[in-house]
Design brief:
The complex is a heterodimer. Chain A is mostly helical. Helix content of chain A is 81%, strand content 0%. By secondary structure, chain B is of the alpha/beta class. The chains are: A mainly alpha, B alpha/beta.
Amino acid sequence: MSQAGDLARNMNGELRIVWEEFKKNLKILLCYPVIWGFWAIFPILWVLPLIFQGKALVGGLSSQAFENLTGTDNYLAFVLIGAIVSTYAMSSLWGMGQSLREESYWGTLELILTAPIRPLPILIGKAMLESGFATVGALIQAAIFSFFLGVDLSFGKILPVLFIMILLLLGLYGAGLALAAITLLIKESRGLVNTLNWVFYLFSPIRYPVEVNPITKIVSLAIPLTYALFAIRSILLLNTSIRELWVSVLLLILFDIGLIWGSYYVFLRVERRVRKTGTIGMY
Amino acid sequence: MDIAIDVKDLTKKFKKGKRFRKGEVVAVDSASFEVLDGELFGLLGPNGAGKTTLVRCLANLLIPNEGEIKIFGKNFSKDPLFIRRQIGITTGGERTLYWKLSGRDNLNFFAALYGLYGKEKEKRIDYLMEFLGLKEVKNERVERYSSGMRQKISLARALLHDPKILLLDEPTLGLDPQFSRFIRKFIKEELNRKQGKTILLTTHYMDEADELCTRIAFINSGRIVDVNTPSGFKREIPHKEVLEVRCLGSINPTGVEKVKGVEKISISSKDGISHLKVITPRGEDVLSDLIELLREEAKILSIDVKEPTLEDVFIYVTGRGLGEEYER
């Protein structure tokens, strides 16, 4: 068998593991109907208060003061895009951060680590389930968003937005790998993911333009979500083409490479360390 | 015959304590042994002797501090994925399955991890479930299974990829006698004799090791004390007898040890009844002194003089019984 053949067979095998992991987690979730109820109403409950809050604050759907900072007067659309994209992004961190923690809680982590596989497909499978739920949520939110604010969500705009989202998710899946590694080490992920969540909220333009404060403006440059949000808002609200956003795209690609490579390295180091300390199965 | 598992001077230490009270626990201490291809090899020792740590090292879940493990001549550090493909493992404890999934779904998932797909996977799962008598409950959630059924599913999972080596950590722990008999027969007759698998089994049940294993390693406080066949072990203490005494109340071990003719003792207690084992060249010679001593502290319920069993050999060799509170 040629090297290319081996590689294709390995890739195929790993994709099947991703799929089996996805199916396994979905089946386990199906055992808890309350979670389905939550996901059915969560997107609506989550997005409506933001709309009402925006209306109350700016007295309508737009603000002149806001336009001076961001280039768009549509405050509500700005906030909602931030909310939807950040929810989507955080789901991947939750998925990967929690994945090994759950396996160690179930007592199955050690058996996974004795299998002749890399743990990466397991982590991706878990994150994909979270992303799947987030996609459904985001679609419902986007429908509400379009209905209330009349924002154009045509195919021509959705495709470049999806492209940016994929670039963002790749980097966050990479960061999720590092989170999973840290979880292996410290046996806790909630605190870590929540902290990251709030750091993102503070230092990236999710709810407000970071330009309002010189510190947030500088720190936000180190967070890939900033570039993704800038690009998506530019596409949806300012009708900017993807070509004009090449700097954001390039930076997102660089973040992806750095985060995936760096996090994978961290994961391998941590995995070796816990095999040495004998703490794999502990939770 | 080829060597399937070759362990040389294996040492595994764990850190314990925090900050100013840091220390080290030596879980496995310079262990060396070989398991031949197709052999059913037992690691026998009390709880905390280092059996599970050794198995976890063999499964690459733990990286040893010192020493070397070779599986069919290959080292873990050079080709870990190849070696993992050769090994199937069942670990002790029930929580090693997805309880919310059915037995079949559990096997489906783990089959994917070992590269089994499509019809090959379905055939293998069907075969294992039927063979282990789980066909009727294959679609039931594991949480509804009995302990024995869960142990069977764990075995099926370890066998999914038809490994050459099986590491079975306490395979009958907590099972009722009927399931234990089934699992033991399956291990010996089907897996070892018919399929020719190399099996390393850990247990603290002496009769299990005696019944199943071709060779046994006694492990105590992390050290491999002796390796022999069950009959070879029994020959190690010829011309000895074992006095087994059951008493109501506690027994003072120091006093018993001082009785003339007593070589080794082991004491355990259950439900308020103390069990004393005394290894001696001649039971009759120590009987009267022993009765006199025990009567001072406890009420003697029964006394038997027996031929040494494997457990007695273990006490003789290690100075420690399996699960005893006091051994010397």
